[in-house]
User: Which sequence fits this backbone?
C-alpha cells in the first residue's frame, strides 16, 4: 500500500464524512440531541480533513459532495440509523489503515492515534445517542412486511388460475389483507406483552401499518389495470422492490451480505407464490373458472 495514496484516500473520506454529517445535522427530521451529536462529528471530521490536507494537498472534490447527496437520499428512504451504519460499513477498513499509517509515519503517530480514537468515539456516540423507533421495532415491521408479501403474492399468483377479472382478484387480496393485518397486529401485541421488552401497542401498530402498507401497494395494480397479466406483472415488480428494500435494511442493520439477504428472502416469498399458483391452477380447472383476461 502506497503511504501517500493511503493518506489521500483517508483525506477524501474525511471530507465526505464532514459533508454527510453536516447535511444530516441540518435535517429537521432529526431530533435536537441527534443533530448535536452529528454536528460535533462533522466538526471533528473537518479537523481530520484539514490535518491530512497539510500532508497530501487539496483532496476535496465534487464527487465527495455528490456522494454525500446520494447518502441523504438513503437517509430519506431508510432513516438515520441505516444511513450511519452504511457510512460506517464503507469505512470499515479505516481503522486498519490508521494502524498502517501509524507505523509508516511515526512522526505523526500521536495525531493519527488521536484521529482513530475520535472516529471510534463517533461510532459509540451514534450508538448511544441515536434511537429510532422503527429500528427498535424492526422485528415487528419485518414480520408485517414479510407475511404480507407471502400472503398477497400467493393470492395474486393463484388468481392467475382462479379469477376471471382484476377487480375480483384485487378485492380478494384487499379483504384478506385487511383481516390478516388485524390478526398480525393482535399477534404482535400478544408477543410483545409476553416478552416484556417492547411496548405492546407500538409493536402491534408497527406490524399492522407495515402489513397494510404492503397490501395497498400490491393490490393497487388490480384496480388500475384491466388485464390480469398486466396487474400481476406490476404486482411482481412492486413485490421485488419491497423485498429489495427490506433486504437492504436488514443487511445494513445486522451487518449481513445484501445479496444473500435478497436471494434468501426472494426465494422464500416467490417459492410460496409458485406453490400457490399451482394450487390456484388446479382448483381453477376443477371449478371451471380458469380464464385470463
Assistant:
Amino acid at each position: 500500500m502506497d503511504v501517500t495514496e493511503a493518506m489521500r484516500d483517508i483525506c477524501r473520506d474525511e471530507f465526505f464524512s464532514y459533508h454527510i454529517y453536516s447535511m444530516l445535522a441540518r435535517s429537521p427530521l432529526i431530533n435536537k440531541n441527534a443533530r448535536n451529536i452529528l454536528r460535533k462529528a462533522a466538526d471533528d471530521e473537518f479537523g481530520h480533513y484539514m490535518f491530512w490536507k497539510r500532508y497530501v494537498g487539496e483532496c476535496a472534490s465534487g464527487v465527495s459532495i455528490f456522494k454525500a447527496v446520494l447518502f441523504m437520499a438513503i437517509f430519506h428512504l431508510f432513516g438515520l440509523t441505516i444511513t450511519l451504519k452504511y457510512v460506517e460499513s464503507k469505512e470499515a477498513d479505516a481503522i486498519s489503515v490508521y494502524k498502517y499509517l501509524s507505523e509508516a509515519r511515526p512522526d505523526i503517530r500521536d495525531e493519527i492515534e488521536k484521529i482513530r480514537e475520535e472516529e471510534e468515539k463517533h461510532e459509540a456516540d451514534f450508538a448511544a445517542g441515536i434511537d429510532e423507533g422503527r429500528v427498535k421495532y424492526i422485528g415487528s415491521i419485518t414480520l408485517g412486511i414479510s407475511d404480507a408479501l407471502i400472503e398477497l403474492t400467493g393470492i395474486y399468483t393463484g388468481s392467475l388460475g382462479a379469477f376471471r377479472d382484476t377487480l375480483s382478484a384485487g378485492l380478494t387480496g384487499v379483504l384478506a389483507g385487511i383481516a390478516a393485518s388485524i390478526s398480525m397486529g393482535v399477534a404482535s401485541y400478544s408477543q410483545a406483552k409476553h416478552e416484556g421488552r417492547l411496548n405492546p401497542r407500538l409493536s402491534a401498530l408497527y406490524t399492522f401499518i407495515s402489513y397494510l402498507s404492503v397490501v395497498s401497494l400490491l393490490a393497487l395494480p388490480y384496480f388500475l389495470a384491466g388485464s390480469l397479466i398486466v396487474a400481476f406483472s406490476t404486482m411482481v415488480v412492486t413485490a421485488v422492490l419491497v423485498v429489495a428494500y427490506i433486504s437492504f435494511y436488514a443487511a445494513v442493520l445486522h451487518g449481513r451480505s445484501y445479496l444473500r439477504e435478497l436471494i434468501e428472502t426472494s426465494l422464500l416469498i416467490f417459492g410460496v407464490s409458485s406453490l400457490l399458483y399451482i394450487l390456484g391452477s388446479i382448483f381453477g380447472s376443477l371449478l371451471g373458472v380458469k380464464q385470463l383476461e
Q: What stands out?
A: The chain has a mean pLDDT of 85. The radius of gyration is 25 Å.
